[in-house]
Amino acid sequence: MPRLAYLFERFPAFGQTFCYREIAELKRQGWAMDIFSIRRPTAVANENWDPSIAESVEYLPDEQELLTRVQRANRARELPPAAAIAIEEWNRRPDFLRLQQAACVGLQLRQHGVGHVHVHFAGMAARTAYWIAKFFGITFTFTAHANDIFVPTNFEIGLEQLVSSAAAVVTVSDFGSLFLRDRFPQQAAKLHRIYNGLDPSRFAENAEISDVPCLLSIGRLIEKKGFRDLISACGLLRDSGRKFRCEIIGDGPLRAELQTQIDTANLSSVVSLSGPQSQAQISAALSTASVFLLPAIIDRDGGMDNLPTVIMEGMAAGLPVVATAIGGIPEMVEENASGLLVPERDPAALASAIEQLLADPERARSMGARGQAIAAEKFSIEKNVRALGSILRQFTAG
User: Fold this and answer.
1) Which of 51, 167, 280, 309 is the most buried (most CB within 10 A)?
2) Are the beta carbons of 319 and 293 closer than 8 angstroms?
3) β partners of residue 37
């Protein structure tokens, strides 16, 4: 039985459904794994998650206990010499806790006989895995997603060191893979594109039972999701006489600002911010929606979405999609086949695309059916996790 470890910054977390699905499918395919999390979750995980996965997570101790534990291991000469030297030399320089965490986790991995670690995001956990590899010779791989590669934080152990030190790097879209190939051409051979996956059978067939069509969007209420443009587009649709309602599911720092925009435009009767919802509630909302929307933008810092899981879920539910053509979204939405792609920051184009689908329900249904087929063909969790497993198996015993 192949065995590896997963290391997260925080797990399980509300926005990490794709990580949970990956781990659950790896287990189903016969993998054994240890799961470590540097921090504890701040919100309850999805109620449909296998509780045995959450219960198996080992959390690192708080800072003081972590330092005490590593000092004790050092005094007992349990740390590899490379770890003891690096920790002493690094001292309290920025990101020093990554070295301490690497020592703590690495000792446990060595004790458990685990020789490989996989990480999601080129962030805190990846930097910890970098030091685990340096100290213990335990290889690591990571899956890169969006802002972690498009606008990486400037740490001494940065994206270049992570890519060059990793045994392999997975990206979730061709767009992301090409981005890294252009930036690090010498590392091209270790880059692999594997889409996030889902089980399409878990999403109910779209029922669309209301006489008033529902426009549905889901995402964290932050700039790069483009919700300001969606609200503006709703104003244009309302002014044209089109009857509809729009529901935005999610929470985030822009909630008050977006609500003010809705109120100021007198859209509160047709546009609602529903807050965060469970996966069961999201599935129910998808089953009664008419169109799925995600008008994502490139934000002022260069951050953008790459392969939004919510678009994948909308497709699996049989909804036509209207989205912007940024990041890996064009790899998901086939223009004029499963949805419509519009320029970013263009509420008029967004409203026009929505109007096209609302005015032609048969075309919308055809697009939804094509999206469902794409979700099953391209984003099957079983197929994509099997592809990931074939990469990880190169670095694991069993």
Assistant:
1) 309
2) no
3) 8, 59
Q: How far apart are CA 7 and CA 36, in angstroms?
A: 5
Q: What is the pTM of this model?
A: 0.94
User: Around Cβ 334, how many Cβ atoms within 10 Å?
Assistant: 17
Q: Which residues of 32-45 are buried (b: 16+ CB within 10 A; e: fewer)?
A: ebbbbbbeebeeeb
Mean pLDDT per segment of 10 residues, for the chain of length 398 residues? 92 86 95 96 71 92 97 97 97 97 98 96 98 98 96 94 98 97 97 95 71 95 98 98 97 97 98 92 93 97 95 96 98 98 98 98 96 95 97 87
Return d(Cα 106, Cα 157) in angstroms, integer.
18
Cis check: omega of the bond before 12, within 30 degrees of 0? yes
The residue whose two tokens read 């002022």 is: 300
- Structure-token pair, residue 27: 């287990």
Nearest-10 Cα torsion for 143, 149, 152, 154: 80
pLDDT at site 306: 96
Per-residue 3-state assignment (H helix, E strand, C coil) for 207-243: CCCCCCCEEEEECCCCHHHCHHHHHHHHHHHHHCCCC
Whether 284 contacts 306, CB under 8 Å: no
Q: Token pair 């699996």 is at which residue? A: 316
Give a three-class secondary structure readout of 105-143.
HHHHHHHHCCCEEEEECCCHHHHHHHHHHHHHCCEEEEE
